[in-house]
Design goal:
The complex is a heterodimer of chains A (about 170) and B (about 600). Chain A has a single domain, classed as Glutaredoxin (3-Layer(aba) Sandwich), CATH 3.40.30. Chain A is about 40% helix and about 20% strand. Chain A is built from five helices and seven strands. Chain B is mostly helical. Chain B contains 25 helices and six strands. In chain B, β3 and β4 form a beta hairpin. Chain B starts with a helix and ends with a helix. Classes of the chains: A alpha/beta (about 170), B mainly alpha (about 600). At the A-B interface, α1, α2 and β7 of A face α13, α14, α21 and α22 of B.
Chain lengths: ~170, ~600
């Protein structure tokens, strides 16, 4: 009987170790799972330009894009827009700022932009600043689920959405 | 508390109604992150309905149906009698009218809580040991109503709002999420209106009144949503492990094209429910389930297993089989005719019971991805399995019905005891210090295995004492006690090893090997009791009678060390405290002492002649 008991105890220990091996999940495993998940490719949407015409997002492939959502009534947006444009002017890597306004009326957006168009004329003329308008938030909310401003999504040259900055871009 | 009153008024006026002949199979399988793990919506519903109502069905509705109604038709759900409040003191404190069924609706409960704001504030300042049973019941009601409010508000982003405010949109808005982009414009319009006509609604035209009412509704919807994080059904896109509720996505800025797809599917579900469109509901719930099962970290097979687990309740059936096995074993021991048939049936019943028992534990391991001994409830399940398995092993070796008796007594009693804790069992994740699979698989498994063998040894001692009192064959009786001696040795092995491993774990987690924590003291007590008994037997200080009585009382030591310490709200092992079983434990200990005393006296008098 004692031998049988010893066998039973050893079997129990073995089972416990097998359980341990099977159920052991470490945080390292979790990070490996994250790395294997598909990259987040920006959706193939087309924005309406504030000054007329359209701009498909995927037409900007090959360049780093700051997809920035704002509105004229958003107080932090005013401070941030200046920071964004200053930074863009300093970095000579061809980054594009695609600034999407959620204003209901185009004139509100134009009124907001007027001083920036004057102070950063070169940037606007070079095409590195593109302003879009989405008055009904079909893309801002319907596709990108931005409900509060400002928010910025950094999109890489490969169209992968790398990071999202919620609030002011510092 | 004014929030609750305003919430009641707003809920009752703002959302359109429902009816129900839907299929909930897909909705029940939608994964949700709750209490640290991903579970099916069905479990989420069961947990909350059990918590509020005490049962898993309400008014002929399954838990899932009840949850869907609360989420998509909050105005109807808040009038349903839901909260069970049996404590008369609590009813008196809240001035609630006594009811025969002790059930109160959300509307009644929140009105009572709102009317007793000062009482709530004073109770929240007390620590748990200072609360009376009635005060605890009042606080429980407060917590439950807050939780239920989260469920009621979870989908107000998408629900059809009973307002009609014209906006310049491509399509007529119906839900908050449609109106939200136009709220700045509406606010400007209202400000202009107030500047023109003042605040007196009687001066407003119907359209202007609707503007004011509509904007008020939208504003309240937004304000009531800020802490709404319970319904975590959307995985994060931008890093982290915490899933998000729809309102959390809205407020936190964690939105993305992926979350937009999920939100659209939830909206379809809400629209289908409110439109009472069974076909659209079925399509929407199937689409949502299919998408959600593809989320990272979701294991569809684990979700299916969990649903089956709650549907079939294998543990209840196992307990019934153990009880049947016990009755059949008594027949075997009674000497009546057809003993052979009874024995076969008993072995079959116990075998089937242990199979279901094993399936229960194996399912929990697979669902929770950890060893099955993280909570008091789980330890009861595991210890009972050990005891039953060892009882069957004894029966296989000795074939004298002793093993069957041990297995059925241990299995049925421990599973019956576990029923007291099953209501609190939500298969939740463990606190950080416990959530290490290595120590769960070693220390806790060792200790609980030791408990199992110890209880078996105690039951064998009971059998010996009864046989002695009934003047059964002395050789057979002595053989029984020898079995108890061997089992006690194994119990000592596991409890000692487990206690040492516990000390090493404590050193790693809390920086000290031993801290005289009640649980640690309890584990040491079991070891010391066994060492004392076995050494006394070896040295001759205890003869059979004394040894058997001491071994029978081992059950008391184990019960107090394992369950009794949880009644104390102190110590670092404070992760399983409850006072539900206090009286039962006291009665058990008293019965054991009485049994030990009576049998000792009977055997002592017989020895004296």
């Amino acid at each position: 009987m004692v031998k049988s008991l010893i066998v039973a105890v050893l079997a129990l220990i073995t089972l416990g170790l097998a359980l341990l091996d099977r159920t052991n999940i470490t945080s390292d495993d979790a990070s490996i799972v994250t790395e294997n998940t598909p990259a987040k490719i920006a959706p193939d949407v087309t924005f309406a330009r504030l000054d007329g015409g359209i701009i498909p997002l995927h037409s900007l492939a090959g360049k780093k894009v700051l997809l920035h959502f704002w509105a004229s009534w958003c107080a932090p947006c005013r401070e941030e827009f200046s920071t964004l444009l200053t930074r863009l002017a300093k970095e000579d890597d061809g980054t594009i700022l695609l600034a999407v306004s959620g204003d209901a009326k185009a004139e509100d957006a134009n009124r907001f932009l007027a001083p920036y168009r004057h102070n950063f004329k070169g940037l606007f003329d070079s095409g590195r600043v593109i302003v879009a308008h989405d008055p009904h938030h079909a893309l801002i909310e319907g596709v990108f689920e931005t409900f509060k401003y400002p928010e910025t999504i950094i999109i890489g040259p490969d169209l992968v959405m790398q990071r999202k900055i919620i609030g002011v871009y510092k | 508390m004014r929030f609750f009153v305003a919430l009641l008024l707003w809920l009752s006026t703002c959302f359109a109604a429902y009816a129900d002949d839907f299929s909930y199979a897909d909705f029940a399988r939608i994964p949700i992150q709750h209490e640290g793990r991903i579970k099916p919506m069905n479990t989420f519903a069961l947990v909350h309905l059990e918590r509020f109502y005490g049962k898993t069905r309400i008014d002929d509705m399954s838990a899932t149906q009840w949850l869907a109604r609360a989420m998509f038709d909050p105005a109807a759900a808040m009038d349903q009698p839901l909260f069970l409040l049996k404590d008369a003191d609590a009813e008196a404190m809240l001035n609630l009218p006594p009811k025969s069924d002790h059930l109160y609706s959300f509307a009644e409960a929140t009105a009572a809580v709102a009317a007793n704001q000062k009482l709530m504030e004073s109770l929240l300042e007390l620590s748990p040991p200072e609360l009376s049973a009635g005060q605890r019941a009042v606080l429980d009601l407060y917590e439950n109503t807050s939780l239920f409010a989260q469920i009621l508000l979870s989908n107000t982003l998408f629900l059809h709002l009973a307002i009609d405010v014209p906006v310049d949109a491509d399509a007529p808005p119906t839900a908050f999420i449609d109106y939200y982009p136009y709220m700045p414009e509406l606010k400007k319009s209202l400000q202009a209106l107030v500047a023109r006509k003042g605040m007196d609604l009687d001066q407003y035209a119907p359209a202007e009144t609707e503007l004011a009412r509509g904007l008020n509704t939208l504003t309240m919807t937004l304000e009531n949503s800020e802490d709404n994080t319970l319904l975590r059904v959307i995985p994060p896109t931008w890093g982290g492990d915490e899933w998000l509720s729809p309102w959390a996505v809205f407020h936190s800025g964690q939105g993305s094209p992926e979350t937009a797809e999920s939100m659209a599917l939830w909206r379809n579900l809400a629209v289908a429910y409110q439109a009472h469109d069974a076909v659209a509901w079925q399509e929407a719930s199937a689409a949502l389930r299919q998408k959600a099962e593809g989320f990272s970290g979701v294991r569809p097979d684990a979700l299916s297993l969990e649903m089956a687990y709650y549907k079939w309740s294998p543990l209840g059936k196992s307990m019934a089989l153990y009880i049947a096995g016990f009755v059949l074993t008594l027949l075997c021991l009674s000497g009546l005719p057809k003993v052979r048939v009874a024995r076969l049936l008993a072995v079959g019943a116990v075998g089937a019971g242990v199979l279901l028992h094993f399936i229960t534990i194996a399912s929990r391991i697979y669902i929770l991805q950890r060893p099955p001994v993280g909570t008091l409830y789980e330890s009861l399940l595991f210890v009972s399995l050990i005891a039953v398995l060892f009882g069957l092993f004894l029966e296989f070796r000795m074939r004298n019905n002793l093993g069957l008796l041990v297995a059925t007594v241990a299995g049925s009693m421990l599973l019956f005891a576990s029923q007291s804790f099953s209501g609190d069992d939500t298969m939740s994740m463990l606190i950080a210090v416990l959530n290490t699979n290595f120590w769960l698989a070693t220390h806790v498994l060792c200790i609980t295995t030791g408990y199992g063998f110890g209880l078996v040894a105690g039951i064998i001692a009971h059998v010996y004492l009864i046989m002695g009192c009934l003047r059964r064959d002395p050789d057979r009786t002595l053989q029984v006690l020898r079995g108890g001696y061997g089992t006690a040795l194994i119990a000592l092995l596991f409890t000692s090893l487990g206690t040492i491993l516990g000390g090493i774990w404590a050193d790693q987690s809390w920086g000290r090997f031993w801290g005289w924590d009640p649980k640690e003291n309890g584990a040491l007590l079991i070891c010391l009791w066994l060492i004392w008994l076995l050494h006394s037997r070896i040295s001759g200080h205890f003869h059979e009678r004394g040894f058997a009585v001491g071994l029978a009382l081992l059950n008391v030591v184990i019960a107090l060390s394992w369950l009794g310490v949880n009644l104390l709200s102190t110590g670092l092992h404070s992760y399983g405290f409850t006072d539900k079983a206090a009286w039962v434990l006291a009665a058990f200990c008293a019965a054991e002492f009485l049994f030990a005393g009576v049998t000792w006296c009977v055997l002592w008098r017989r020895e004296r002649g």
